[in-house]
Amino acid sequence: MRFKIKVNENTKHADICTSVKWGLNNEAYSLSDDYTILKWDPNSLESSKFVDLEGYGTDFDFLQGQRGSTDLVAIAFSDGSFILQQKTGKIEKKEKEAHKGAIISLKWSVDGSLATCGEDGALKIWSKTGIIRSNLVQIDKPIYCIVWSPDNDAILYCSDKMIYIKPLQAGQKQVQWKAHDGLVVKVDWNHTNNLILSCGEDCKYKVFDTYGRLLFASAPYDYVITSVAWSPNGDYFAVGAYDMLRLCDKTGWTYSFHKTNQGSILNIAWTSDGTICAGAAGNGSVIFGHVVERCITYDKWEIILTEDNKIQIIDLIDEMNSEFDFKERVINMSMKYNNLIITTSSHCYIYSFRNWNTPYIFDIRDSVSQICQCSNYFCLVEVSSGIMIYNYEGKLISNPKIQGTKFEHLSHKKIAISNDLLALVDGGNNKVVKFYEMNSGKALNFTVEHSLEILEINLNQTEMIGERKLAFVDQNRDLHITPVHKKDIVKLAAMTDSFLWNEKFDMLCAISDQRFVVWYYPTSVYVDRDLLEQVKVSKESTDLTRNSQILSFQDTMVQIRRKDGAIMTQSVSPYPALLFEACERGKWEKAIKLCRYVKEHTLWAALAGLSLQFKELSTAEIALAAIEAADKVLFIQKIINVESEKAKSALLALFFKRPQEAENIYTQAKLYYRAIKMNIKLYKWERALDLAIQYNTHQDTLLAYRQKYLEQTGQQETIPRFEKLASDIKKYDWVEIQNKIKQEKAREQKQ
């Protein structure tokens, strides 16, 4: 990926260009010391005068209204004043003494609040009509740049060598940290990935999280870094300096480096779709960088965006390639599950690997920010229309009605789909994951709630709906798994940089503590927690660095992008996939033969989990014996020897460490003695007594077992209810109790 640089050498400002912004219709605007703001077409590079100014403008920003309209432009001046002007040229407000000294930066929020800062060290908040709301910050040094937080409840600003996050609500603590060894010149806060970007006079650019933890620091450049800006999608950012424009990945490594020969790039702005970057140059020019040569790979196919509106499709095995032209600029591309999805500003194209020449094409209403795919469906995240779910023939399946989510800022890490469910991190509460039905778009009545903020989610892609699992990483970078239809969160790993489910089978891989980890069958934790560590394969690799990201997990190959941008692959054993195929088809003998041939402990453990999940007890007995779980083998044998199906189900629930479920099965089947005896064995004496009294049965049996237990342990009775029971039943006969138990078992066998 790189920038394709375009500059109109013949048309430029007469003086230094200090700021650049984008309108809603992808037209650029530039501010200069020649008292003008020009309007630019990024394709033809033609310009026209937008407005003449009465003084030296320092910065400006548009308040974006409805689609296709720009309501107000705020323009700041070096004398400390600012004006609010309509697009038509009508001045709505002129504030002459907003600051003492020059206003250096100003920014509109989504709700229409205007923030200004300047040489006087003041940061002020103004209403849409230009009325002062608050003097939020007053320090003794100039404030050089301000940015609103993603939720518009705080402001990021920089002064001297420091970066600050100031909450708007009174009483909340300000966050601050030393960011650079020199003056901090520019900052930016991405609304999608929630990361902070900065540059300074120490000739470095850096990436931080919102707590001030350093995620990346560049090597010193030859000149001061004068501007930085995130792409709206949060996947990459641009860096400007003297005669330099650089395109970087969000983790910091460089995609491309360009010598511009236009002086210092003083300001950078991106289009809303993240495809074009504009830079304000020191010689008065406006530089346009079109993002081209985006590349995606899947299976044997590679797709390269060679021009704004042209893609090249390469067959890596047969060494064949073809090109497709589009009438509009390509905005997004995604390729999975044997289908390629391409979106432009008004159309969506669906290419099947079986037929590249006749794609399905349909209109879209708005710009698409994200594309998510599963085997049967895909969804488009549109800025105004929300999430639209389609099949691979272009038919609209559903449009879930989701409240409280800003779709233009929705990260691909906070949305996941499978053939039956759409999972989404709640926009109003980042600790909650909500679920929607794919076919109808209806919100389901179950959610997953966690104690910490959820950063990333992913659904497994198994065809069995009852086996649907959600994996997620929280704020502490801990990896968890939970069933979708029942909250039972289990922690799998700590210090997790990235994770991904296999595209077809229930295998999960992750990069945890700089180790590559694969769980052959993580769902086994819900049948026997002891199996979780036994189905895990961990590989230590010096090639894996911090912040490495897993790109794909297809068949037995895992593709990983390291922090430095290099792509590496990790191979996974092919045998788990063969095991899954055999088990899903009910070929248990074949699965056993496979494990005996391979002789891997992890594979036997995976077979044990699968067979227990499918209640194939004979296979489970063999698999558990192979991993030397003698106690579990004995229990499984006991379950096999029980003739009552209800009793088998209850014992299996007990094996899965779900005693309440086992008790419910017993009581519903009227196997009261077994329910009482189970609680006795679990030393839940009072619960056993509750059952005996509730169903008026085996009270003498319970008392006999209780007194026998006290005699063996040398204890005295301490439970008043048992003392009362002993006074009511003064004498019991062990022989009679044994006969009663035999009769109970005989009755079970008849059932």
Describe the protein in words.
Pfam families: Beta-prop_IFT80_2nd, TPR_IFT80_172, WD40. With 751 residues, the protein is α+β, with helices and mostly antiparallel strands. It has twelve helices and 53 strands.
Poorly predicted ranges: none
Backbone structural class? alpha+beta
Radius of gyration, whole Å: 33 Å
The gross shape turns out to be elongated
How much strand content do the residues show?
Answer: 35-45%
InterPro entries: Beta-prop_IFT80_2nd, TPR_IFT80_172_dom, WD40_rpt
Keywords: WD repeat
Protein name: Intraflagellar transport protein 80
Domain IFT80 second beta-propeller: 293-575
Which secondary structure elements does this structure contain, and how are they paired or packed?
Elements: E1 2-7, E2 17-22, E3 28-32, E4 36-40, E5 47-52, E6 57-64, E7 70-77, E8 82-86, E9 91-95, E10 103-108, E11 114-118, E12 122-126, E13 132-138, E14 145-148, E15 154-159, E16 162-167, E17 175-178, E18 184-189, E19 196-200, E20 205-208, E21 214-217, E22 225-230, E23 236-249, E24 254-270, E25 276-281, E26 286-292, E27 295-298, E28 301-307, E29 310-315, E30 320-325, E31 332-336, E32 339-343, E33 347-352, E34 355-363, E35 368-373, E36 377-382, E37 386-391, E38 396-398, E39 415-417, E40 421-425, E41 432-437, E42 443-449, E43 454-459, E44 469-474, E45 479-483, E46 490-493, E47 496-501, E48 508-512, E49 515-519, E50 536-540, E51 549-554, E52 557-561, E53 567-571, H1 575-584, H2 588-598, H3 601-613, H4 617-626, H5 630-641, H6 645-655, H7 659-668, H8 672-681, H9 685-694, H10 699-713, H11 720-728, H12 734-750
Antiparallel strand pairs: 1-26, 2-3, 3-4, 4-5, 6-7, 7-8, 8-9, 10-11, 11-12, 12-13, 14-15, 15-16, 16-17, 18-19, 19-20, 20-21, 22-23, 23-24, 24-25, 25-26, 27-28, 28-29, 29-30, 31-32, 32-33, 33-34, 35-36, 36-37, 37-38, 39-40, 40-41, 41-42, 43-44, 44-45, 45-46, 47-48, 48-49, 49-50, 51-52, 52-53
